[in-house]
Amino acid sequence: MRRSCIAVAATLWLLAPAVAFAQVDLSGQWAAINQQDNMTRGAGPDLADYTGLPINDEARAAALSYTSGVLSMTERGCTDYTENYLLFAPHNIVIERVNDPVTGDILAWKISAGGSDRAPITIWMDGRPHPSPYEAHTFSGFTTGQWVGDRLTAHMTHMKRGILRRNGVPLSDRATLTLHFVRHGDVLTVMGVTEDPIYLEEPLVQTGSYRLNPRGNAPATNPTCFPFTELASLDKPGTVPHFLPGTNPDAETFAKTYNLPLDAAHGGAVTIYPEYRNKLRERYTPPVACTRYCCGWGGGNPLASGLKCVAGGQ
Amino acid sequence: MAGGIACALADAAWPGARGGTLNVVTTRLRPGYLRKNGVPYGPDAVLTEYWDLIEEATGDRRILLLLIVEDRTYLQQPWIVPVHFKKELNDAKWDPTPCSTRW
User: Taking residues A115-134, what's their average pLDDT?
Assistant: First the structure.
């Protein structure tokens, strides 16, 4: 046992200089790993599933008024997600180093949109200040960065109003985003801290990892989006799909599906910490049978596994 | 053994390194579960951890932990999951209880 520890230590020691140098180069094609929060990143969250989000009452009310039908409106069909989507999107990314043409210094790092329905992110590394709070807010926001050891820490302001989760949990245009990029070998981990004085009770912390992919072909830019009429009825003036307070038919669907107390399903800072479990102890009754996602998304693939998928408690 | 054998290196001590990463490699784990719904790992699994301490401008201190599980018995490729922890102001919430098989 001791001998194997020494062998591992010696190997890592020999590799140390190369590893330390490589950690500061973020450029390249990065493949999203998506082994965490797979449902949220991939197929998407359940309607009115706000678990894990430290949202306040106002955010909850706005989220319950949301319907994804708004994305079928002609004027909203090409609307980008805000940059925090990087933290819960399933897409690969390209990171480019932008050098100053005169000095050769690193002027900025650019993170591609790569077809992910959000704008590219430019992280300025030249020490420029953030603009006035009254400057225009854009889907790219404004981001500056600096190295803290081998970690790149970036701070984004001037974001547009957007979402925190694809089921409509809102993000205000006063939100800021701090991104930490940590590279270990060929794995890049991004930790994002979203702060929003309008909709969050405390910062929302999310993480995602990527693997360096020398054969990646994620595009650096998004293809041009051309809006078109998906539903003619949504082109009538004054038509904006929404739910009035108390009328969202799916407000309790997620909670009932998993037999959760409604306040647990609807999020809030108190619900995201382990001690909340003690508060649920007296109220929670485990469901008698798995009724959803029991055999994987879409019911699994019985032919491949050779097993019959048991769903619906049958 | 259940806890396995872990070797740790703090890379701040490495030549040329400037970070604060604690790198832990654990072998000889007893077979167990990657997920509470029964997805297994086998006796030859290797768990690699990278512990990074991050201090926010607000003063909040967090741990960013990257977990990489390699298991030739049950995995086709490494299972890679980043998780994070927030440092508590004190130990007021620290309330360890005996192990119980009841929820």
Answer: 92
- Minimum Cα–Cα distance from A182: chain B residue: B52
State the complex-level ipTM. 0.86
Chain A: closest CA distance from residue B68 (Å): 10
Number of alpha helices (DSSP H) and beta strands (DSSP E) in chain A: 7, 11
CB pairs under 8 A between A and B: 98
Give residue limits of the domains in chain B: 5-86
Which candidate from B20, B66, B93 shows the least CB-CB separation from A275? B93
Q: What is the pTM of this model?
A: 0.86
The rounded mean pLDDT for chain B is 85
- Residue A198 forms contact with B (CB below 8 Å): no
* CB within 8 Å: A191 and B81: no
Task: Quickly state the pLDDT bin for A258 (edges 50, 70, 90).
Answer: confident
Same domain, yes or no: A37 and A148: yes
Decide if A96 is inside a domain: yes
Rounded CA separation A201/A194 (Å): 11
Q: How far is B35 from chain A (nearest CA, A)?
A: 11
Q: How many helices (H) and strands (E) does chain B have?
A: 0, 7
Token duo for residue A230:
């998906």
Residue A186 lies in a domain: yes
Encode burial over B56-92: b for 16+ CB neighbours within 10 A, e otherwise: beeeeebebbbbbbebeeebeebbbbbebeeeeeeee
Domain assignment of residue A259, yes or no: no
Q: Per-residue pLDDT tens for A290-299?
A: 666 665 554 4
Same domain, A182 and A41: yes
**Of A191, A212, A233, at which residue does a domain stop?**
A212
Residues of B in contact with A275 (CB under 8 A): 93
From chain B, the residues in CB contact with A155 under 8 A are 57
Which chain B residues are closer than 8 Å to A151 by Cβ?
19, 52, 54
List chain B residues with CB under 8 Å of A16. Answer: 11, 14-17
Structural domain span for residue A201? 28-212
Both A199 and A311 in a single domain? no
- In whole angstroms, how far apart are CA A215 and each of A28, A31, A35, A153, A267? 10, 10, 20, 27, 40
Instruction: Report if residue A238 sits inside a domain.
Output: no
Residue B83 has pLDDT above 80, yes or no: yes
The two structure tokens encoding residue A95: 């990171």
